[in-house]
Amino acid sequence: MRITTILFLNLFIGFIFPQLALSNEDLIDEVLAGEHRDANNIKRDKYRHPKETLEFFGITPEKSVVEITPGYGWYAEILTPLLRENGNYIYASYKLNDGINPFFVKVEKAFIEKMQQHPDVYDKLNWVHFEASDPHLTPDGPVDAVVTFRNVHNWAQAGTTKSMFEGFHKALKPGGVLGLVEHRAIPGTSLENQIKSGYMTEDFVIQMAESVGFRLDAKSEINANPKDTKDHPGGVWNLLPNLRNIADEDKDKMVEVGESDRMTLRFIKD
């Protein structure tokens, strides 16, 4: 009788609350296989290791998560449906003020079109616009996690790295996680060359995070790429997905390298 009751309860829970019947790993796999995902984005899973990265950051379906400047929505395609039922996903992008780089206008328009194509996926997405010099990311209160992918070099170039990290710290609950992925420079690279190449040193990122109150909790080599020599004339943009200014006869060689070598860091707000 007891075994029958337990089996019935498990079936009932799985029917009424289907997400609760699946492990976090299974839920991520389900999202990664979703028909809403762009085919070109799926091809990049092998370079970006989204499941392993999100698990390392501790992202689960009930969490509240801010993603910083998601762009065309590579990770938004994964995080939005993952958090849709029991969590909260916030797409945080720059305010489109006069003089803003036209690229950000283009990106926002493209992502809105993506949302319109799949309203069943993006209907519960929350959107916040912020100023990089003083970012306010969570108008409805602090969140469990802030995640950002390959953005630090842009803030370093703009001189807003410190203010952005301060914004992350303010956005998080005590014990909250800042999950960060960034192109990784050779240790000792000058800040000038970091900005020029798009590769940032781990020391620069860690020092910046710690200077605003974060504690480095763990590093991971999930997104490491030993094939990346980091000496490309055009920096990270010579590699996939851009292949910027690469001659046709050299593209196969650069494709073989893959995407850049990347640090994957987890910080905690104590």
What features would you describe in this structure?
This protein is α/β, with parallel strands linked by helices. Helix content is 41%, strand content 19%. The protein contains 13 helices and seven strands. The chain has helices at 2-16, 24-32, 39-42, 45-48, 50-57, 76-83, 102-117, 119-122, 152-158, 161-171, 191-197, 202-211, 251-257; strands spanning 64-68, 88-94, 126-130, 143-149, 172-183, 214-220, 262-269. The protein has a seven-stranded mixed beta sheet, with helices on both faces. Helix 6 (76-83) links the parallel strand 1 and strand 2 (88-94). Helix 2 packs across helix 6 (76-83) and helix 9 (152-158) crosses helix 11 (191-197). The longest helix has 16 residues, at 102-117. The chain is globular and about 45 Å long. Mean pLDDT is 93; it is low at 3-17.
Briefly say what this structure is.
With 270 residues, the chain is α/β, with parallel strands linked by helices.
Topology:
Layout: H1 2-16, H2 24-32, H3 39-42, H4 45-48, H5 50-57, E1 64-68, H6 76-83, E2 88-94, H7 102-117, H8 119-122, E3 126-130, E4 143-149, H9 152-158, H10 161-171, E5 172-183, H11 191-197, H12 202-211, E6 214-220, H13 251-257, E7 262-269
Parallel strand pairs: 1-2, 1-4, 2-3, 4-5
Antiparallel strand pairs: 5-7, 6-7
Helix pairs in contact: 2-6, 9-11
